[in-house]
Structures are given as C-alpha cells and as structure tokens.
Design goal:
With about 250 residues, the chain is an alpha/beta fold. Helices cover about 40% and strands about 20% of the residues. It is built from eleven helices and eight strands. An eight-stranded mixed sheet has the order 3-4-2-5-1-6-7-8, sandwiched between helices. Helix 1 crosses helix 11. The protein starts with a strand and ends with a helix.
C-alpha cells in the first residue's frame, strides 16, 4: 500500500481536482484506492456526489471511531469530510499524540487498499500534519501563474519537519503543473522555474485548462465519467500513468 498526500498551501491550484481525479484514475487502473478528504471545505466529498454526510472523518478524529467509508465504485472508496472539521484544529491542540491520530486510524486499513490518496487542507496546520505523518510521498500541484511560488519554501519546510520528527520515509514524490495553457509564454517560463527549483521532481504530465474539470464536480462525477474524451481526462490519465511508473 502506498499513501499519497496532495498538498498545496494555496487555494485554487487544482489540489482537490487533482486528488479526486488521481484517485479515480488509479481506480480505473484496477488499483483499489481510498480517497480521504481531510479538508474542511469538503470539496472532494461533494465533488463525488456525497452531501449531507452524517458521519465524517471529523467524528473519527474527535471520538476515535473507525473511519467512515463510502463506496464510490468497485475500486474506489471515500472517507468524507464535513464542515465540522473547521473546529478540529483547536480541538487537537490539547490532545496527546495529536500529530498521529490519522496514522492510527489508518492502521486497520493497511491491507485493504493499493493506494490511499489524501486531500490536504490549503493550510499548514495540524490537519495537514496529520495527513503527512502516515504518507509515503507528497504530490504538489502548482498553478501556471507567477504567484505559484509564494510560500513554497514554507511548505517544503513543513514537509522536512514532519520527515525529521514523525515520518522519516516521507518524500516529495513529484510536482506537476496545473491550469496551464501551452500557448502562453508564461506557462513555459513557470515550467522552467519549477524545473530549476525541484529538478527531476517535476513530472512531465501537465494539466491543461479545461472547462470540463470545473463542471464535473458539480455533477458529482470524476473527469473520466463526466467527459472521458476531454483534455482533462487525457491529462489526468497521463498523470496517473506517470505516478504508477515513477512514484
């Protein structure tokens, strides 16, 4: 089993879209996959058509009960989030071993899945640390814009701190460009800058701007189900294949 955390401290980078479609893409490759939504915004949960959740990851974090698992299809499951998770950061402050709560919850599921994909919050707080402690690797989506680097050193520093104190096996598995327009000179410039910063961690796959990627979650579907012939489906299929071979 490999656990992948999808992380970016900024909103609007395609983080949740990537988590959803990487998970769905792995499932299409017949890899038994669990998506975990630990983001209080609940976009991943709602993007898979799950609303009015009665029991979420919040209940497991607060009460120590087994993670609630919603079946999406034969190869894809989801641990949903809820808005109640907003208060979890404050509630975790006084807890013993608060950094390892999710890791302990996942112990029972080790043999059930080929991949676990965690959608982190767009913040570098205790929920994100809980996602990184059980992770094998981190994937970082970076938007093809000038401000993509803002705070990136802080994010890399958090990953390094978690590796040094809680999870020595944690690595940055890859960085990939999202919302890119190959015709724009800016995209080429950003790609070159990322290459200089991350070296061979920059994945070849790029996610192009595609309206279907924005529409699919509204219908509670992944891109492969909603628009299988779209650029979005092609790009995420290529990304998943690269993940399977390199990470």
């Amino acid at each position: 089993m490999k656990t992948i955390a999808i992380l970016n401290h900024k909103g609007g980078t395609g983080k949740t879209t990537s988590a959803l479609n990487i998970g769905a893409g792995l499932a299409r490759q017949k890899k038994k996959t669990l998506l975990i939504d630990i983001d209080p915004q609940t976009n991943l949960t709602e993007g898979l058509g799950k609303r009015d959740i009665k029991v979420s990851i919040y209940n497991s974090i607060r009460d120590g009960i087994d993670l609630p698992i919603e079946k999406i299809n034969d190869y894809l499951d989801l641990v949903p989030s809820s808005l109640e998770l907003v208060g979890a950061e404050l509630e975790l402050v006084s807890r013993l071993a608060r950094e390892s709560i999710l890791k302990n919850l996942l112990k029972k599921l080790k043999t059930n899945y080929d991949y676990i994909v965690i959608d982190c919050p767009p913040a570098l707080g205790m929920l994100t640390i809980n996602a990184l402690v059980p992770a094998d690797t981190v994937l970082i989506p970076l938007e093809a814009e000038y401000y993509a680097y803002r705070g990136i050193d802080r994010m890399v520093s958090i990953i390094s701190d978690v590796r040094n104190h809680y999870n020595e096996k944690l690595t940055i598995g890859g960085v990939f460009i999202t919302k890119c327009n190959p015709k724009r000179l800016l995209t080429e410039h950003i790609t070159e800058s990322v290459q200089k910063h991350f070296g061979d961690k920059l994945l070849n796959s790029k996610i192009r701007v595609n309206v279907s990627l924005a529409e699919a979650p509204i219908h509670g579907k992944d891109i492969f189900e909603y628009a299988p012939t779209s650029n979005g489906a092609t790009d995420y299929e290529n990304l998943v294949k690269e993940i399977l071979t390199k990470i």
